[in-house]
Amino acid sequence: MQRAGRLLDSLDARLAASGGTRATAPEILDACIVLLGADGGYLTVAAPGDVHAVVHASSATAEELADLEICYGEGPARASFEDSAARTVTLGEASGRWPVYVSAAESLGAARLSAFPLRSPDRVLGVLVLYVESDHPLSVPDEVAQVLVDHAALTLVDTCDVPELIRDDEWADQAIVHRATGMVAAQLGVSPQSAVSVLRARGFVRGERLVEVARDVVERRLTLNP
């Protein structure tokens, strides 16, 4: 485990060099991306009610990958969270398990995704997902990377207001919008981005906030037809 020990030392050194008194979620994610040789990634936190909120995404591609998984309710991050185990998938080989997600993720340029549960001593906080744009592995095996991510999870607990983030109603609103986006995208046969535009337009006409329209869709009080 010498390699894992060196990774932990490197993570601590990077966070200390940031100059702040507390490490932030973006700093932790960005350090993991560099140390593990990924092209980008995102970090989610789980909240009550099966809500998975994106805390930070390193790029527009990472943000869209996170949105896809939340919208469609399938993908490696959700699977990793549910069984508290790391998993790496080559998208071209995973279409049988997650057909909708894989097709959309490949269109964004991702070739391989690695999902690692953020494990604290008493629960799984969320998931850290890394992607590469060519089919090459991370710089270390998954079991070594998981040691680093477990250390990152403890750092989050020690330095970030994770409980406050989880209780914030904003996360619940975000999850409702994402779920409604996936439903509308399926109903109309359009992209998630177009589905959000449809929801926003309906809210403008009705004089309602986006989350209010989304809640009507999720609770099946509103169906949008082609």
From TrEMBL:
Residues 148-218 form the ANTAR domain. It holds the Pfam family ANTAR. GO terms for molecular function: RNA binding. The keyword Transcription regulation applies. SUPFAM superfamilies: GAF domain-like. Keywords: Transcription, Transcription regulation. SMART domains: ANTAR (SM01012). InterPro entries: ANTAR, GAF-like_dom_sf, WH-like_DNA-bd_sf. Coiled coil: none annotated. This is ANTAR domain-containing protein.
